[in-house]
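Input/output pair, single chain:
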Amino acid sequence: MKRVRLAARIAASRRRRLGRRISPDLTETFDRDGFVLIPDFLPQESFASLRDQALAAALPAREVVQGDTITRRIAIDREAMTAIPAIRSLLGDPRWRGLIRYVGSDKSEPLTYIQSILSHRHVAPPDPQETLHADTFHATVKAWYFLTDVAADEGPFTYVPGSHRLTPERLAWERDRSLLAAAGKLDRLSARGSLRITQDELAGLGLPAPRAFAVPANTLIVADTHGFHARGPSMRPATRVEIWAYGRRNPFLPWTGFNPLSLPGIAERRVPIYWRTLNLLARWRPQPWADVGRKRPMDE
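Output:
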């Protein structure tokens, strides 16, 4: 557990240096809850332009099937920026940039996509993302800027407030899970480092019940996904579309920058290069993220 404690201390140190970029009320909210929610993030005119351009754009897409749900991602690369010029109003917003850096405790540019969640598209077991989990043992950041309304029964993002903090109870729980993983007694995703937890276990860690975010379009949520989170259950076929960003870097680096992959001209090429690498690897081993050609976010 030494690496878990060390990673938490280094993340706290980096956040102290990055907190100047956002308002004190946002840092206070995040430090308490592990997430920040901002409704009406963009002016209505800017949001409407971004939504209309994004939903109309047919761009290279990848999809993965998990249980009864399809997740589709369209990279925000140079082609997408040309097709969706209004997205610059979001990506250039100082609050977007400042929050992602503070929550992720790093200045690196995140990987950014248009993400569509198409629930109940197969007769299959439930989506494994509907189980509460932590992405990894250290601070990471994910952001959801919703382009469509999210109903309470259509797969809302769900988070356990305060679960990003490394309390003695959380540390003991992590240690117990590591021993079970070493003994081969955990599920596949937990054994890979994304530890699952049941709602019944939360009270023992001093944590409240999960909070589900049924929110209107034009809402931004930025969260530390070291905290417990999940995709809420969907009661019927539904499609949720968002601008989704993800950042994770070596947790033991004490500095907040110096990432060459974030340089202009390189950052926007990372996802296309990664996808081409997946195409090469697919010759020898099947890849979960399938190339589905050009699609719009709402396409069936």
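Residues 2-18 form the longest helix (17 residues). The domain at 2-295 is CATH 2.60.120.620 (Jelly Rolls).
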